[in-house]
Amino acid sequence: MYKIGTDIIKIKRMKLNYNFISKVLHQDEQLIYNSFISKKRKKEFLAGRWAAKESIIKILNTPILMSNINIGYINEKPTILNDNLKSIELSISHDNKYCIAVAILLELKEK
């Protein structure tokens, strides 16, 4: 059985203040975020992480804080770096105004 979570968000809704950023981004992601110069790129990055993490949270059976989920890139593909979440596949896409993410988990039934 597959579990699928998805989320879409308007990029302009992202708030570039420390309290919001620290609730959404893992410490490692904050380093990447802080390397961006333009507000536009910061909002795109933040929207991508928000949508991805909302998608992940929707398929989990246990609560988790967004800031505890660490998303990085392996072979140019968004990948969850948390050991306990590595079985989740992730896709993030941006366009002009929106960001969408999909998370997929193959759940094996126990016999």
From TrEMBL:
Keywords: Magnesium, Metal-binding, Transferase. The keyword Disulfide bond does not apply. Residues 4-102 form the 4'-phosphopantetheinyl transferase domain. The keyword Magnesium applies. GO terms for molecular function: holo-[acyl-carrier-protein] synthase activity; magnesium ion binding. GO terms for biological process: fatty acid biosynthetic process. This is Holo-[acyl-carrier-protein] synthase. The gene is acpS.
